[in-house]
């Protein structure tokens, strides 16, 4: 299935790729190769889309839905954290008052550096 066909099977984007990774600490983790995925409450990018951070390019390889209850330590490590609990505490600190609900659906965006 082509990227275009795959993107047509997903719901419309709710935001633009420029808003996918914005926090300076997260930008640094992506550039250093410590963060290869990010989760959002909406879909911010299409597969094949390019994200530019500090003049470095990253391609979105995969976009899929997941619930918070499905998160594993491996997923947290892809986000740049050691454990799900560490990731959870960081997310809750960014969004005061937000509940952490295992059934809450998030959109996973996986990416890698563009090799030119």
UniProtKB/TrEMBL annotation:
<feature type="domain" description="ASCH">
    <location>
        <begin position="20"/>
        <end position="115"/>
    </location>
</feature>
<dbReference type="Pfam" id="PF04266">
    <property type="entry name" value="ASCH"/>
</dbReference>
<dbReference type="InterPro" id="IPR015947">
    <property type="entry name" value="PUA-like_sf"/>
</dbReference>
<protein>
    <submittedName>
        <fullName>ASCH domain-containing protein</fullName>
    </submittedName>
</protein>
<dbReference type="InterPro" id="IPR007374">
    <property type="entry name" value="ASCH_domain"/>
</dbReference>
